[in-house]
Amino acid sequence: MIKRLKTRRALLVSGVALVASSASxxxxxxxxxxxxxxxxxxxxxxxxxxxxxxxxxxxGGGFRMTGTVRRAGDGALLAHQRIQVWAHTTEGHERDxxxxxxxxxxxxxxxxxxxPQIVPAFGQAHGHLAYDGDDFETVFLRPxxxxxxxxxxNVDFVLQPA
Length: 162
Prior knowledge:
Strand content: 15-25%
Shape: globular
Mean pLDDT: 86
Distance between the termini: 54 Å
Helix content: 10-25%
Number of helices: 1
Structural class: alpha/beta
């Protein structure tokens, strides 16, 4: 009876640990089997400008947008994927062409783009990001910043093949 109780307790503890590590995002790519695609967010495509140029930075900088791009299903990191970024900033509105730019992920599926400080629009400090390439389904995101004084925002994409 004691051995059976220990076995059940070990199973319960390992199950809780697995759920906790999954929820915290600590899974490695090999453990990411079944990685669900990122859904488009409501309002994410607001003021989207198709074909924004690939740039080294938007405006004078001061804020950094970062993230990773993975493939749905196996969670593999995706190199050379186009991510467009735009926002209402200290240098322009999100509808202004100079407030838009795109970047490519590096060999490890990571992107970063410096831009002017994001400021609240309609009461919320938020950015807009889009995957708008040809190999995967388009995804528009509109993440809201926790604090309007934050100087960076990390946003991850999981893309569904087109």
